[in-house]
From TrEMBL:
This is Tropinesterase. Signal peptide: none annotated. The keyword 4Fe-4S does not apply. Gene3D superfamilies: alpha/beta hydrolase. Residues 36-266 form the AB hydrolase-1 domain. InterPro entries: AB_hydrolase (IPR050471), AB_hydrolase_1 (IPR000073), AB_hydrolase_fold (IPR029058). It comes from Microbacterium hydrocarbonoxydans. Keywords: Hydrolase. The keyword Nucleotide-binding does not apply. Its EC number is 3.1.1.10. One of its GO terms (molecular function) is tropinesterase activity. Pfam families: Abhydrolase_1.
Length: 289
């Protein structure tokens, strides 16, 4: 395998690719390989919202690609009204890169988009990581809108990053983990991505609510190895929905981190990273040991 030349996510160059009339912004790092790990980001997330501790650890072993959805960050176009359309955008981007098989690492809204992608293209994804997310039609998922606006307001009043409220418990441990996470996101100091626009953020929120209120998808089409992880107190995408995903996806493995919220994998990154790396570097035909 050759290398992309990037040794860390903080140093990975910004790239662009035009597909289906949209110019997608993306970054890649790690060894070249036929099957990359494509990262699907959360609500309002840009290229700069991935925890470098997780990306760098996986990129030591795998080729990692992160991208901005249409209308977000450095990508052109307009944020789609539905997550199905966002999945179509992802498919256009992935196939324009020349890949016919990928592995997926997803968080929150990214996991919802990844599910829609697989339902439409079940042979595309070989291994799947779903974190802080839930299934289409999941109970109370549509309440994310109210929770999000309330926590954004609370963050504004305390001059904090909204992710400290949305992703972490407001106890001493959670507050410390939230500040550490936000600090890690600032490690990249050059060529940073553009923040999402308010109108685009609102469109994404409505798309998630629509996803939550719609009929469930048949997730039995997901037959490859699947790792599901979350905190035990997820206020954005209720933790029970991770159990729901586990029940719907045959052979999946579920990890719930205690005393943590939506960003459980970021609070417990030191425990989660070895699990994720092992999962994503296992024999393609094998399940998690």
């Amino acid at each position: 395998m050759s290398s992309t030349g990037s040794t860390s996510y903080a140093e990975a160059p910004n790239k662009t690719l035009t597909a289906a009339g949209i110019t997608f912004a993306y970054r890649e790092l790690g060894p070249e390989e036929e099957v990359p790990v494509v990262f699907f980001v959360h609500l309002a997330g840009t290229l700069d919202n991935w925890d470098p501790r997780i990306v760098d650890a996986i990129a030591q072993h795998r080729h990692v690609i992160a991208f901005d959805q249409q209308g977000v960050g450095g990508s052109s176009g307009t944020v789609p009204r539905t997550l199905e359309e966002a999945a179509d955008d992802a498919y256009a981007f992935i196939t324009a890169l020349g890949y016919t098989t990928i592995d997926v690492f997803s968080f929150s809204m990214g996991g919802m988009i990844a599910q829609d992608l697989i339902v439409k293209h079940p042979d595309l994804v070989r291994r799947l990581v779903l974190t802080g997310t839930g299934p289409r039609g999941g109970k109370d998922m549509d309440k994310v809108v109210g929770t999000t606006y309330w926590d954004v307001l609370r963050a504004a009043l305390t001059r904090s990053d909204p992710k400290e409220f949305l992703f972490f418990n407001r106890d001493a441990v959670g507050k410390k983990a939230g500040k550490a996470f936000v600090s890690r996101l600032k490690e990249r100091t050059v060529d940073r991505d553009e923040d999402i626009r308010l109108s685009a953020f609102q469109t994404q929120l409505r798309a998630i609510a629509r996803f939550g209120r719609s009929a469930p998808s048949d997730l039995s089409v997901i037959t490859g190895p699947t790792l599901i992880a979350n905190g035990d107190n997820d206020r954005m995408v209720p933790s029970i929905l991770s159990h729901d995903l586990h029940a719907r996806i045959p052979g999946s493995e579920l990890i719930i981190y205690p005393g943590s919220g939506h960003g459980g994998i970021f609070q417990y990154w030191e425990k989660f990273v070895p699990v994720a790396v092992r999962f994503l570097t296992a024999d393609p035909a094998a399940t998690i040991p």
